[in-house]
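pinging the channel bc i need a second pair of eyes. not urgent but kinda urgent?? the chain im working w is below, pasted from the shared doc
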Amino acid sequence: MSQMRARVLIADDEPSIRFVLRESLEEEGCEVVEVADGDSALTEFSSGRFHMAFLDIRMPGQTGLELLDRLSAMGSSVPVVIITAQNTFENAVEAMKRGALDYLVKPFGIAEVKALLTKTLRAQALEEEVHALRREVSRQVISGERLVGRSPALLEIFKTVGRVARRDVAVLITGESGTGKELVARAIHAASPRAELPLVAVNTVAIPRDLLESELFGHERGAFTGAVEAREGRFREASGGTLFLDEIGDMPGELQAKLLRVLQDGEVTPVGGGQAQTIDVRVVAATHRDLDAAVAAGSFREDLLYRLRVVPMHIPALRERREDIPVLAHHFVDDYAADLAAGPRFLSDAAIEALTAYDWPGNVRELENSIKRALVLSTGDVLTPEDFAFLQETEARSSGPSLDDLVRSEVTAALEQGDSGVYRSLLERVERPLLETALRRTDGNQIRAAALLGINRNTLRKKIVELGIELPERD
């Protein structure tokens, strides 16, 4: 809101007071409406919108204080400054008690008027910005942005978001990769009382194991090599807001115990620090793994699972809610056509049928990227099945045996042959091409290769020696 658009009402039976106020306000670019009595002021309030009002505490008709009561009953939020000739404690208390923004004592200075105007318009501008952000958040939560659809399963997710958002409890979101787990977490945060505070997302699998503790809980300066300055950590960054822990099922066991303690005590202790620090954070976690199976296998703590899964939410795979595919496809075309194509693009009925028939192993993320690819490469205004022919190639590749199937087959064959060293030999067969590929990708730079693989540099160097890997020659 700019002051040029500010509309201000002055109600005072003294012409000289109205003159001083009008001159001061018009100098600031305000549109001023002035009246000489309370009844006229009420008529103006009823017929138009004002950003601010100056009301005399005593004037013919309704007084300034009575008008405050009427405005409150009308549900009006117009900031009101009461004008009084007597600077008494009783007048000040009564004015503020009835909801006045402030009060001016006659005679007052121009500087006082302008200061109150600036203060009021700044506050209203910030309030309008917050309302705009809340409206946008509400729009995103209702439409789901990219989590759109009409399937009963998705509608249940929206209902659960609405029920759980305002309850300050931990939520565990499960589902395959690409189903939109982070979008659900963001929807929960956006609809919660913490919405105006940070949402901090951490992908626990994307951070090297030896740095994850510091990333979550922070560290003190000098806590370890490279800690040249203190860091507060993601828990404290999310203070008052929400911490989203993605891929929680892949968190190392030693950190699971520390996370459990943090959730139990509401305190974090930075690496290298001795003083625990209180936190106020809501935790929403997500995983594509079966954590009950992980608990049974001993790779995930059962007590931590109970802490995280106060409210469970599961997002079905896209192939399990095919009625959402056309809605999502049209949504993505509308979203990206302006940026990725020369003009508007449309999906033919045949294209929709082809997209709906595809299984989408990468779920919504794969559908989104496929729409982008088709928009970039298409030459016509209408997208046809031919624009999505690449999906058939993807399907053909994915129809072969999976890596899990290949490993099981190799292990079964080795055990049948009595190979007692199957664990070491299979690991070596996997590790060697993995490390060699990363080293070639980085031209033999071990620091970059270690970062690329998400392992410690010393671990990489040790594996190079153990496996006798020859480093690529560097130019």
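so The radius of gyration is 32 Å. and The chain has 20 helices and 14 strands. — does that match what u expected or am i reading it wrong
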